[in-house]
Automatic annotation (TrEMBL):
<dbReference type="InterPro" id="IPR043161">
    <property type="entry name" value="DOCK_C_lobe_A"/>
</dbReference>
<dbReference type="InterPro" id="IPR046769">
    <property type="entry name" value="DOCKER_Lobe_A"/>
</dbReference>
<dbReference type="InterPro" id="IPR046773">
    <property type="entry name" value="DOCKER_Lobe_C"/>
</dbReference>
<dbReference type="Pfam" id="PF06920">
    <property type="entry name" value="DHR-2_Lobe_A"/>
</dbReference>
<dbReference type="Pfam" id="PF20422">
    <property type="entry name" value="DHR-2_Lobe_B"/>
</dbReference>
<dbReference type="InterPro" id="IPR027357">
    <property type="entry name" value="DOCKER_dom"/>
</dbReference>
<dbReference type="InterPro" id="IPR043162">
    <property type="entry name" value="DOCK_C_lobe_C"/>
</dbReference>
<comment type="similarity">
    <text>Belongs to the DOCK family.</text>
</comment>
<dbReference type="InterPro" id="IPR046770">
    <property type="entry name" value="DOCKER_Lobe_B"/>
</dbReference>
<dbReference type="GO" id="GO:0007409">
    <property type="term" value="P:axonogenesis"/>
</dbReference>
<keyword id="KW-0344">Guanine-nucleotide releasing factor</keyword>
<dbReference type="GO" id="GO:0005085">
    <property type="term" value="F:guanyl-nucleotide exchange factor activity"/>
</dbReference>
<dbReference type="GO" id="GO:0007264">
    <property type="term" value="P:small GTPase-mediated signal transduction"/>
</dbReference>
<feature type="domain" description="DOCKER">
    <location>
        <begin position="1"/>
        <end position="312"/>
    </location>
</feature>
<protein>
    <submittedName>
        <fullName>DOCK7 protein</fullName>
    </submittedName>
</protein>
<dbReference type="Pfam" id="PF20421">
    <property type="entry name" value="DHR-2_Lobe_C"/>
</dbReference>
<dbReference type="InterPro" id="IPR026791">
    <property type="entry name" value="DOCK"/>
</dbReference>
Length: 312
């Protein structure tokens, strides 16, 4: 409701019944959107009002809806973890440069479809002959771009959390709500190739911060800050081993147990068919103590990662 509107304080919404009506509408909308944790937060405001009015009928209805919401949260946790990280699209025009993050539903080829839609949208406005798609997520050298063309660069990003944030973001809802920072990774080597041997494989993490948090009224939000982190080959190996260990831990602790998931994880980590599995990582980085003292900490961390991995 708008505070500037004349007579708003005497309107139907500016009453206890009006507030209750708006909150009930909000709870129903959150439930339809599958945001059941938010349903609970709305009812936390409603319950004291009905308790004060001794309205047992309304309280009974609310508690029934809360039971339904929490049952769905339990079901959601069992089915969605590890498969529902939102896929985002990012595109930018180098001159003037702008970037957006836009959530799209997860499905096969969703980035391809997203690219097609964006290309069609801007193609109608600029003309398809002046529009060009940059097909990788590497940094763009603006000097090499044609000033008479518009360029679109699209990649997918995933939510980014600092280590301290992960202590509070435990549930599926926590990890997919109130998101402002997103990340995408670009592999590279010092000689310009995208992929190389383990000892020369670097990784660039690009972290984007949006002006507002998702979910939001708008489906595309401007990127207001961008930072880059460069991981050295041994740091890339540490991250890969940590990821494999997490996947293994998840697969062995599923309830009910899922042998297919376990088999897939084991094939991808232990019985890997490519020559860059854990054994290769150990042979490249752990055979000898590094000469550079700066690498001692990383060397030790990788050893501990392997210790944890073998335990799993």
């Amino acid at each position: 409701v708008s505070p500037d509107e004349e007579g708003i304080c005497s309107g139907k919404y500016f009453t206890e019944a009006g507030l209750v009506g708006l909150l009930e509408q909000a709870a129903a909308s959150f439930s339809m959107a599958g945001m059941y944790e938010a349903v609970n937060e709305v009812y936390k405001v409603l319950i004291p009002i009905h308790e004060a009015n001794r309205d047992a009928k309304k309280l009974s209805t609310i508690h029934g809806k809360l039971q339904e919401a929490f049952s769905k949260i339990v079901h959601q946790v069992m089915t969605c973890i590890f498969s529902c990280t939102p896929v985002e699209g990012l595109w930018s025009f180098p001159s003037p440069e702008c970037a957006f993050v836009s959530p799209t539903p997860i499905s096969g080829g969703c980035i391809l479809m997203f690219s097609f839609n964006v290309f069609g949208f801007y193609g109608e406005r600029f003309g398809e002959d002046v529009l060009e798609v940059i097909k990788d997520s590497n940094p763009v050298d603006k000097c090499k771009l044609d000033p008479n063309k518009a360029y679109i660069q699209i990649t997918y990003v995933e939510p980014y959390f600092d280590t301290y944030e992960m202590k509070d973001r435990i549930t599926y809802f926590d990890k997919n709500y109130n998101l402002r920072r997103f990340m995408y990774c670009t592999p590279f080597t010092l000689d310009g190739r995208a992929h190389g041997e383990l000892h020369e494989q670097f990784k660039r993490k690009t972290i984007l911060t949006t002006s507002h948090a998702f979910p939001y009224i708008k489906t595309r939000i401007n990127v207001i800050h961008k930072e880059e982190i460069i991981l050295t080959p041994i740091e890339v190996a540490i991250e890969d081993m940590q990821k494999k260990t997490q996947e293994l831990a998840f697969a062995t602790h599923q309830d009910p147990a899922d042998p297919k998931m376990l088999q897939m994880v084991l094939q991808g980590s232990v019985g890997t068919t490519v020559n860059q599995g854990p054994l290769e990582v150990a042979q490249v980085f752990l055979c000898e103590i590094p000469n550079d003292p700066k690498l001692f900490r990383h060397h030790n961390k990788l050893r501990l990662c392997f210790k944890d991995f073998t335990k799993r």
